[in-house]
Amino acid sequence: MDFLKINRSDNVAVALSALSRGTVCLGVTLKEDIKRGHKFALAPIGEGDNVIKYGNPIGRATRPIEPGEWVHTHNVGTNLEGVLEYEYEPAAIPEIRGRREAFPAFRRKDGKIGIRNEIWIIPTVGCVNSVAEAIAKKAEPLVRGSVSAVAAFTHPYGCSQLGEDHLRTQKALAGLVRHPNAGGVLVLGLGCENNNIAEFRGVLGKTDPERVRFLNCQDVEDEIGEGVRIVSELMEIASRDVRSEASTDELVVGLKCGGSDGLSGVTANPAVGVLSDLLIGGGGSAILTEVPEMFGAERLLMARCRDRSVFERTVSMINGFKEYFMRYGQAVYENPSPGNKEGGITTLEDKSLGCTQKSGSSAVCDVIGYGDPVRERGLSLLNAPGNDLVASTSLAVSGAHLVLFTTGRGTPFGSPVPTVKISSNSALAEKKREWIDFDAGTVTRTGDVEGCGEALFDHVLKVASGEILTKNEEHGMRGISVFKDGVTL
């Protein structure tokens, strides 16, 4: 299969492999070479007419386009604009086939499950980042039993922030402290910061004193030695934890794409959408974020909102993020990235219609704010940006046990939780074996998105059970990035 017309109403097709000028595809003769992931016209498209892909407009022609001609940024512009009014027009939600599978996990005191048992060091402020990293390094030889790692998650914030911006940092860090993948946590403070431990505990709320410890560096003579001592105590407790039977209806999966290409919306994202439906249909949960990458596809998500309340919160989230862009004088369509364009994505609508396919076809059951925990089983929308590190962190903060990260260009980074890298094309999977966990590029050869999604579900079960580690875990590539929007003093 060398090319694909995704929807019968489309007036463009996608090259699944590089195509040469003169090749006849779907009855049209290509007027130029078409790179993998890029589009070509199937019919005449007049200047100002919509370019249709996925059965929806991805922009408008900026000049006449002939059949067989390459369709990209040189002849297509966005239709996107600022804040819009929306009507609630619910669509019929198809019956979803689910899978509910048992797997071993760590059962925490609050009843939640963790798919990893690690010791985390969370700095309250960036001033103690180097101390946190030193403690983690010195504590590595202490790892034993069921504990698999000691990790310090550093960041540059926690002081010189104001109001909502400061609270956003506190909520993000609190979500990590409470995460069930951590069998023990050391909260490391300096002592004089805005987000000092006393203030932070007010946001954090009640914690298990056996599993969550606190240390102010200014209060002790040897902060590294004291930190290692505390981690040693946490290790003694957590190392005795054992996996017991859990179920996928307790699993929370974060959905993310980055470094996308023109095949992301054809292979990897639809395969993740199959997994999402299988998980949710079996009682589990998925979180979709990257709000700017919903622009242009938001009406499809709004039509899936289970009731008017969820719809109204979705509208507020979408328009609120557009207002955030506009507040800083930025165009709402300032996306895709150069790498996205090189891979065949033309406009933000093109990117969004591919991106949102990760959510499958289930109803949207909730909308959650940045730093807030997931509250309901099913599909939730999370208010966070599209930046890879920030969005992946936000998913972990809200309770995702792991993140499914689709990519057509490749990236090595990992979030605090296992980050399953899913390639949209097999060439990337072959080239970057130490980055990619799962190859969805097989869909271009088999056409079997459902089968690929089923195989991905099986792979995720192995990751969740601890049978296999993700590539980012194997190589220690993990970190956090907090969403900052405010004054720095």
What structural keywords apply?
single chain; 489 residues; alpha/beta; Archaeosine Trna-guanine Transglycosylase, Chain: A, domain 4; Rossmann fold; four-stranded antiparallel beta sheet; 14 helices
Would you kindly provide a written description of the structure presented here, covering whatever features stand out?
- The protein is an alpha/beta fold and 489 residues long.
- It has 3 domains: 75 residues, Roll (Archaeosine Trna-guanine Transglycosylase, Chain: A, domain 4); 123 residues, 3-Layer(aba) Sandwich (Rossmann fold), CATH 3.40.50; 229 residues.
- The chain is built from 14 helices and 23 strands.
- The chain has a 7-stranded parallel beta sheet, sandwiched between helices.
- β1 and β2 form a beta hairpin.
- α1 packs across α4 and α2 packs across α10.
- The longest helix is centred in the middle third of the chain and has 20 residues.
- 54% of the residues are buried.
Architecture blueprint of SSEs:
Blueprint lengths: L2 E2 L7 E4 L8 E2 L2 E2 L9 E3 L8 E4 L2 E6 L8 E2 L4 E2 L24 E6 L5 E2 L3 E6 L5 H11 L9 E4 L10 H15 L4 E8 L7 H8 L7 E5 L6 H16 L4 E5 L4 E6 L10 H14 L3 E4 L9 H6 L4 H20 L10 H5 L5 H8 L8 E5 L9 E5 L5 H10 L4 E6 L11 E5 L2 H6 L6 E2 L3 H4 L2 H16 L6 H4 L15
Parallel strand pairs: 12-13, 12-14, 14-15, 17-18, 17-21, 18-20, 19-20, 21-22, 22-23
Antiparallel strand pairs: 1-2, 2-5, 3-4, 5-8, 6-7, 7-9, 10-11, 10-16
Helix pairs in contact: 1-4, 2-10, 5-13
